[in-house]
């Protein structure tokens, strides 16, 4: 679909209307403003695609701004992870900015507000301040410190800055309206005392600005035209504008805050606090665990930037919060990997097959197509021998006519190889089948052009030659939660819905072409799913992660239920 033909989302309509009225195209500037207190997740991907997508659409710069105003929770590790995620998704920012760059300017503006009688130092406890806020239907009560003199406020605020008081001794509040119907306008806190080193300013500051005070002012300093936030910030817009009213000048562009809905993903949580809980309690192995909905977790699992961008484009931008089924995200990674991932053979639950009429010690190398979706992908050689592995589930001693895999007296084709027929099987003392004896038709080799090779049999199996097989650790990942909305239950903790089967580790037997597979390399294990090489891999110990199965197995389970 061409850019012209594509219908605009409501945010783009807002931009278009602004361009018709009071904005010039060269004045457009957007920003993506993460707080560096955790790793980005799939919800952030939508915001990244929205802001950077607008930048691409209007050929406008996009800032990457870290809202780093809380040193108690923020770390340089998170800053670096966020930068890596945005770049990996395929976007380039114009300027790397930090709210901490503006601490002095924000302080100077706060002093002006005090001098203008629009801010004051409150010496009450946070509990007392909260109790005086009132309710949505009842006005708040004014602080006993609300009418301190300008001189006293300036002296106290400077003392706060210089570290003369303990944490919590004072706060700076905006003097607005304690009877406002919008509770956020009831003298909001602008600064609090916090004696903690900052990841960039170290111990230069003992006071830190609150988000509402920092947000709009940072946008104004950077001359951001459109400040796009999620819906929970809609009530904050009035305060955003009030703070801007105190500092804007007529010769500079005034930013606009506009809101869009969150897109939550089923069978997961996207609260950073809850994600941190999963990490700290050892439910997962870290922020980049492949079961996590973080961008780094999805990357490690084998998702591609293209699949995530396509997913974000499809779900679009809306005005109401909703939950998007995770199967849609899986669909887009399947669609992309189907085009780019080479097909290889791997057996994860092996059953030994001996081809009794194949010469002992003999081997041959068969031609195998790398990807039927990509003609340029070429082909490779796959070794064949007398003894091979197939999947346990691909053989039954007895089966009905709808079972098109291997059964006694039945025939199947081995992928890229020969037609084999099951003649007998061997069992252990517990009655479990441990080996199948087969015969093969020497003239039935795939691609040989013989009459026998053109013979149709209904089943085709993947397989691996036992003497040539390499072993690998294969991690079979599944959904982290059994419930579609694990954090929506009032009487249960979201941790109650952790899926105990979200990870299974097995030993896989792989064709030898994978011996030199590199970290991040993506393949399709034929008939099994899409996999990629994990960062834990070494040349001596390969580790593969299952990105996604070939089909949505959860959909089948839900239909049965």
Automatic annotation (TrEMBL):
Annotated region described as Disordered, given as residue ranges: 124-147
Glutamyl/glutaminyl-tRNA synthetase class Ib anti-codon binding domain boundaries: 341-441
Catalytic activity: tRNA(Gln) + L-glutamine + ATP = L-glutaminyl-tRNA(Gln) + AMP + diphosphate
Database matches in InterPro entries: aa-tRNA-synth_I_CS, Gln-tRNA-synth, Gln/Glu-tRNA_Ligase, Gln_tRNA_ligase_bac, Glu/Gln-tRNA-synth_Ib_cat-dom, Glu/Gln-tRNA-synth_Ib_codon-bd, Rbsml_bL25/Gln-tRNA_synth_N, Ribosomal_bL25/Gln-tRNA_synth
SUPFAM superfamilies: Nucleotidylyl transferase, Ribosomal protein L25-like
Residue ranges annotated for the tRNA synthetases class I (E and Q) anti-codon binding domain, each copy included: 460-534
Assigned protein family: Belongs to the class-I aminoacyl-tRNA synthetase family.
Name this protein carries in UniProt: Glutamine--tRNA ligase
UniProt organism field: Flagellimonas abyssi
Gene: glnS
């Amino acid at each position: 679909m061409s850019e012209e033909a594509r219908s605009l989302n409501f945010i783009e309509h807002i931009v278009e209307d602004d361009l018709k009225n009071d904005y010039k195209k060269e004045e457009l500037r957007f920003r993506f403003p993460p707080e560096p207190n955790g790793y980005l997740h799939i919800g952030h991907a939508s915001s990244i695609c929205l802001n950077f997508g607008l930048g691409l659409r209007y050929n406008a710069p996009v800032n990457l701004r870290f809202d780093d105003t809380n040193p108690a929770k923020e770390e340089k590790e998170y800053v670096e992870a966020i930068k890596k995620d945005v770049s990996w998704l395929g976007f380039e920012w114009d300027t790397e900015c930090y709210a901490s760059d503006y601490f002095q300017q924000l302080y100077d503006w706060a002093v002006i507000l005090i001098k203008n009688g629009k801010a004051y130092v409150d010496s009450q406890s946070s509990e007392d301040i909260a109790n005086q806020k009132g309710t949505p239907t009842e006005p708040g009560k004014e602080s006993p410190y609300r009418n301190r003199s300008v001189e006293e406020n300036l002296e106290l605020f400077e003392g706060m800055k210089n570290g003369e008081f303990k944490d919590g001794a004072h706060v700076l509040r905006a003097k607005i309206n304690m009877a406002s119907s919008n509770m956020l306008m009831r003298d909001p806190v602008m600064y609090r005392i916090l004696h903690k080193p900052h990841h960039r300013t170290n111990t230069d500051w003992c006071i830190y600005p609150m988000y509402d005070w920092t947000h709009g002012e940072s946008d104004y300093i950077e001359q951001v035209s459109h400040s796009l936030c999620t819906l929970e910030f809609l009530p904050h817009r009035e305060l955003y504008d009030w703070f801007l009213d105190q500092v804007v000048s007529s010769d500079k562009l005034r930013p606009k805050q506009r809101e869009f809905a969150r897109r939550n993903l089923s069978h997961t949580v996207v609260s950073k606090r809850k994600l941190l809980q999963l990490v700290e309690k050892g439910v997962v192995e870290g922020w980049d665990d492949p079961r996590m909905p973080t961008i780094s977790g999805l990357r490690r699992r084998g998702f591609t930037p293209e699949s995530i961008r396509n997913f974000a484009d499809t779900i679009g931008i809306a005005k109401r919060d909703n939950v998007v089924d995770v199967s849609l995200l899986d669909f887009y990674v399947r669609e992309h990997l189907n085009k780019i991932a080479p097909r290889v053979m791997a057996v994860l639950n092996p059953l030994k097959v001996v081809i009794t009429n194949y010469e002992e010690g003999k081997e041959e190398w068969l031609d195998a197509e790398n990807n039927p979706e990509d003609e340029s992908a070429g082909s490779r050689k796959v070794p064949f021998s007398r003894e091979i592995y197939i999947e346990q589930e691909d053989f039954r001693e007895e089966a009905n006519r709808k079972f098109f895999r291997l059964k006694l007296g039945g025939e199947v084709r081995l992928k890229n190889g020969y037609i084999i027929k099951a003649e007998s099987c061997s069992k252990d003392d517990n009655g479990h089948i441990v080996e199948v004896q087969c015969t093969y038709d020497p003239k039935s080799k795939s691609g040989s052009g013989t009459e026998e090779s053109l013979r149709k049999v209904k089943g085709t199996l993947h397989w691996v030659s036992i003497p040539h097989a390499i072993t690998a650790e294969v991690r079979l990942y599944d959904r982290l939660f059994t419930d579609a909305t694990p954090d929506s239950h009032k009487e249960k903790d979201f941790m109650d819905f952790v899926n105990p089967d979200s990870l299974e580790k097995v030993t896989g037997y792989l064709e030898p072409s994978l011996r030199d597979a590199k970290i991040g390399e993506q393949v399709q294990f034929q008939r099994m799913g899409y996999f990629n090489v994990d960062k834990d891999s070494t040349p001596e110990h390969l580790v593969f992660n299952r990105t996604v199965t070939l089909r949505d197995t959860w959909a089948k389970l839900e239909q049965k239920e």
